[in-house]
Structures are given as structure tokens and as C-alpha cells.
Description:
The complex is a heterodimer. By secondary structure, chain A is α/β, with parallel strands linked by helices.
Amino acid sequence: MPLTGRSRSGIEWRARTPRSYRVPVRPQVSVRPRWVVALADYYARRYAALVTMSTVAANAPGVAGSGLADVAASEASLRRFLHGLPGVDQVGLEARAAALGTRSIKTTAKAYGIDLAISMIDLTTLEGADTVGKVRALCAKGRTPDPTDPTTPRVAAICVYPDMVATAKDALRGTDIQVASVATAFPAGRAALPVKLADTADAVAAGADEIDMVIDRGAFLSGRHLDVFNEIVAVKEACKRPDGSSAHLKVIFETGELQTYDNVRRVSWLAMLAGADFIKTSTGKVAVNATPPVTLLMLEAVRDFRAATGVQVGVKPAGGIRTTKDALKYLVMVNETLGDDWLTPHWFRFGASSLLNDLLMQRQKLATGRYSGPDYVTVD
Amino acid sequence: MAKKKNTEQPAAKPAGGLFTYAPAPESPAAAGDIASSYGHFIGGQFVDSSGSEALKTVNPATEEVLAEFAQGTEEDVDRAVAAARKAFGDWSALPGSERAKYLFRIARIIQERGRELAVLESIDNGKPIRETRDFDIPTVAAWFFYYAGWADKLDYAGFGPNPRPLGVAGQVIPWNFPLMMLAWKVAPALATGNTVVLKPAETTPLTALRFAEICRQAGLPKGVVNIVTGDGRTGAALTAHPDVNKVAFTGSTPVGRAIARQLAGSRKKLSLELGGKAANIVFDDAPIDQAVEGIVNGIFFNQGHVCCAGSRLLVQESVQDELLDALKRRMSTLRVGDPLDKNTDIGAINSAAQLARITELTEAGEAEGADRWSPECELPGTGFWFRPTLFTGVSQAHRIAQEEIFGPVLSVLTFRTPAEAVEKANNTPYGLSAGIWTEKGSRILWTAERLKAGVVWANTFNKFDPTSPFGGYKESGYGREGGRHGLEAYLDV
């Protein structure tokens, strides 16, 4: 039943009955391997001592029963928890990511990987110069990535600024392609909380299926973990729709600004505890965006978080992934770190724009045996 | 996981997982021509053996015979040593900068022929192409480059002005890193002005013989490098030869001990790089994910055929469960199978004899009451294979905690305090290598200072670099290879 209303900023909005929300069902981890149970025990034991006060419960469902419920009770307890996570050895992490990058993905595996990667793309345009025409064209590209080959999968989502959500939503009607909107004063996140929440609510009201928020890196770097936590909780609240459903929340860390791997592990846990549905590396707007080691570290974090809480969280590397070779390296990391459970667009996404055409060219090459070149794929 | 069979449909959902890697085999033809039989390389020529006995080298992944090669006789060794002696005068008289040119040339040819050597090594040894391509052959080239750089700077190596070479070096190397062990021995010997007679292992002679071709391609003067093939009898003839000035051996402790006995009282200089039973110590504040990688690299690298392998995992009791669970999870992703497949992590065991030894020791481990675990994985039907194996509940008294297994078998012991970790780590007749995993720098230094091991890695394992000396003490041998220290073994100082 259609609902109408008016957002905080006065823009009229219309929420449609959810038709194709692809909000994944949280997995019922009924038969967990022994190591999963043991890891859960481990994290519960390891952090039980930190759980002293109970004022603000951690937000993620499933956390309540895991012994992690009270880690966000205070700045001190949150800090103790995050700083109690096992350290990350830079050399070892980078070596592992590089080693996984040497996997040789050929023939059938390559065909599978290319199609999977296409289906995982959040096809993105986040420019000041974006227009309705540009966004419509991008949506058309997402619906039909390769007009010469109807077997080509569609992308997972179109990612735009909030003011383009309605346009994208309209252009994607009739498909199950999601509309993702960046929000919370993307990309810097330097705005007051009410502004960020209004930004989010507007995007949701305009029909966004997914919200890509940015964290307050300044707060994180200055040690105000609880501020970051509470902001994510508030944005998650702003993702709720009048019908009780909720836009899917992706939390962008801007790992290029957080710099250290220890920070990336800590912020991953922080965001997951606060209820993030996805954790995402970058905005694509700074010098260093997604890298294989950072992504691997985040994959390990979601693996350990599910082991501890039973809650599955998705991962989205974004920015700087431009070639099929790169994309396949990321899929190999997912495959060998997390396995089948994450090898779907529900749980892993690529934030990218130019990647799609390289995947399409490689796809054509596999089909025809010839490399066609950029004039044989559409620019958008 | 064992190698998966090719599935015909593109992009189909293969059994065993959503994303199954299609076979990505390196072409065996890239190994170049393998002759049906080989003689020795003496005085710059391939020559027939004076004896008639021939040995066979097989591909351990398929048990196919790759080639026959000569069993070197005492007469063959004598000819080789004579050729080396003859070459020594001119070679040692060359200015260091001239010797360096040959070594640089060899290093470049090794790089140029890297793929060929990597495939040949994988076929002859059974180790995965990923390792020969990314580790063995690049390390070989690096060793020659590094020692080429020393050849004209020996005056500044810290051994006084104009240090002199020893003469003829007799070198006996093992089968676990055939070409790399050759490089570790030959490069410093030539840089310092010695000439060499080298005997490769009897299961892996092919890359040494290919190296002989490279010496010819590089125009190396005749007799500077001589290669005599054969089994232990040939090795014994070489080390016993009266005109050999220096013996360098890498291999098992019993053979090393026999060589030391043989050489006692002679004027020959000796360096030995023998067995090990390294402890990999994981403290409770270790970076767990990277420690798991280090443990896996420490024991499953090269099928565990590594003298410095981290074959004893010493884990602090407070993190034992989660570490072992994470380790098992990681071990379940190891891909065992065709060594020439670029995605293979663990290849074939080098020989039937070695497989029998690993099998015997693991059975002893079970009989003594340790708990055995291996991930599910299919093993190929032919060839020599062994699943990556974990033993928990191991105590110091068990054979699997004391004896070198030289296979993909990890024994897990626990400790409660740093002092106990050091005590257990040192409680072995060996002293080659050790690993320390902790985020605390002071604990690394405290522990390293107390470990009786020639090499101590911190938050990493099995890292080798030509600039870094390598070697052991106690029953792991003496002398150092690599770095400035490695020069000393080949200089009269």
C-alpha cells in the first residue's frame, strides 16, 4: 500500500510497497563447524571481562547472546574491546594478500568469476557533474551491460548521490537492481549529525534500497570510538522506512585515511557491533582506496564476527578496482577466506565504474577467443 | 583440496564449492629437452662415467622415469677433482671483477631461463610450480647476483687484505631445494676464487645438469664447475678425496656426522648444514591470522621438506584452542595435487623412501598417543603423496616431537610461560631455526636471546635472503651460508 509523507527537509516522498528489496535473510547458522563454535566461545571468553556496565546495548542482532552486548556501554569499554582485538602484522597480511593474488584463474573458473563479479558490481557515479541523463544512462548500462549478449548478468546496484535516487529508482523499475545512495555528507562526512540523518532519511524516502554512509574519521582517529558507534546506530535508525522495513546500511571507513591495519580491524568490529549490514573500504575520493590487504583484513573481520555472534555482514571494496584480473583476485580472497557463504551479491560487492567494461571485454574474449577492445562495449 | 577435474560447462556451478579453480597446468614441455641418459660434467664437457652403473630419476608426482644418470665412481670423482684443480690456478688468479662478470652472466641466464628451470625443478622434485617459480628460481638468481657483487670486494669483507681461496671445494647437496642448494654452495665458492666439484642428490640431479649447460652458455672456463652425479657412495668418494680442500655438505645429521668423522685430522675445511626440529613459538598476544599463515608456511612449504621447517608448534595454552581451530580452517584450504598446476599449494613427496619415513614416524606418533588430524582431500592415484597433518597432544617425549620428520607434519605442544617456551624450544639436539610470534617487541628480543638456534624469525617464517647468513649449531651443523659470513667458508682465514 503506497504511503506518502514529507521528509524533514520538506521534500515530498512516496514509499512504494517493497517489491524487490533484496535484503538478504540473516543466515540461520544451525550447523556450525566445530571451529566456528570454538571461535565464538573464544571471543565470548576473551571479551567477557570487558562486559561490566549495561547502558547502551550493541546494536547488531545476535550480538545480545554473544557476550558482546555491553562492549559499547561506555567509551572505555568500547576502547578496551577494540584495542583487545588481536594485532595485525603488516608484513604477514600483505604477504598473504599477495600470495592469494598469484592464483591462476582460467577457462571455466574465469568465466564463472567474471559473471559473478559483474553481478556483484555497485555501478557507481558520484560526480558533481552528475545529471539525470547521466544517471539514466548508467542505469541502462546496469540493466543491460552488454547489449550484444543477453546472457550477461545484471549488476547488483546503481550507486548515486541522494538527489539522484528517485531518477535511478525510476530508471530501474521492473528490475531487481538495487539503488544505493551515499549519504551522511559523503565523502568527507564533515557535517552535523542532524544534517547527516536528514541526508540519509531523504535518500531512504526517495526509495534508496541501500545507504552507503561514511564514518567520522576524525572522531575515530581522535579516539572517540563511541561517537562513531553512536552515529552509525543513529544512521541505521534513519534507514528505517515507515512500513517497518529498512534500507540496507553499508558503512564506509575510508581506510586510506585510517592508515593502519590495526585501525581497519578495530573500525570493522566497531561498525559491525553498531549494526552495519555491510562494511566498505572507501569512498573512491581519496588517494588510496580499496587494496587487497585491507579487504582481506575486513574479510577476516566478518568471518570472526559471524563466528562470535552468528551475524553475517557483507564486504564491499570500492575504488581502484579496474581490471578483471583485480576483480578475480578479490574473489579468490573471498573464496579462500570466507567460502561459498559470501560468494553472492548479497554479501560481497565491488564499488566500481570502469571495472564493468573490462569484465565485459574479457567476457567477450572468452566467448569469441578474440579481444574486442573498448569500442565494442558501451561507455555507459 | 585435491586437484579438481575439469568441468565441461562454462560458468557451471562445480561440485565442492561455488568457485572451483579450473586446472591451470604449466606445460611440462617448458622444461626443455630432458636427455634419456646423462653422464657427468667434467672439465667443461659432458662425459661418460668410467663405470657402467646408472641410476634413474623419477617424477614423484607420476612415478614416470625422467632420465637415467651415471653413478659416479671414485675414478669419475678423481677426474672431476683433477679438472677442478687444473682450473683453480687461472680462476683464482683472475681479478675479482672478472670472476664477477661470469657470475652476473650466470645470474642473468638463470633469470632468462627461469620458467624452464622452474618447470624442470618441479618435475624432478615434486614441489609445486608456484614455489619453484616464485621462490626457488628467483632465490637462485639472487644468490648469484649477490655473490657476484662480493667477488671484487673481498678485501673489504672483514677478513683482512687479499683473502685467499681454499682451492677445490667438494660440495654435496640435498634433494629438497636442488638448484637453490647448488646456488648457495657454488656462488660463494666461485666468487672467492675456488673451483668446485658438486654432487647433486640422487633423486634430483636434473637441474644441476641443466646448470652445467648454463655454465657453458656463460662461457665459464672449463673445470671451474664440475658436476658428478650418483648416490651416497659418490658423495663419500668426493668428501674423502685427498685433493679436495673444502667440503660443504647439506643433508641429514647422520651423514654429516659421518663426514665429520671422515675429515677429522685432515686439513680440509668443513661446513655442515644438517637437520632441524624448529620450534615456532606463538604467544597469546600474537597476530593470530598472520601467525596461522606463518605456521602453515613454516611446515607445509615445500611439503615440509625443509631443514629449518617449523615442525614443532609451541603455542601458549591460553590461545591454544582458537589458534588450532584457525589453523585447521586454514589447512582445509590447502590445495594438494599436481605440482605443475599453478594453484597447487602442496605437491608430491620427493621419493618413496621419504614417504615411507614420514608414514613410519606419523604412525609412531599415533601409537604414542598423540591426536592426528588432516583435512579432507583427495590424493592422486599415482605418485607419492601425504596429506598435511597435525598432531595435537604431543609431549616432548614423543618421537614426533624429537625426530626430524621432513614432511608435512606439524607437532603441537603447549606452554604456559615464556620461560617454559624457551626451555621446550631448546630441548632438542638440533639448533637450526626458530620462530617467535608476538606483537611485543621486547618479548621478541628476550626470547630470541635465549633460543639456541642459528636463525630466529620474528613474526614471519622461512624467509631467506642472500644477504643474511644461515646455519645452525648443535646437531644442525656449523658454518654459515649467505651474507658476508658465507664468504668465510670458502676463504683461507
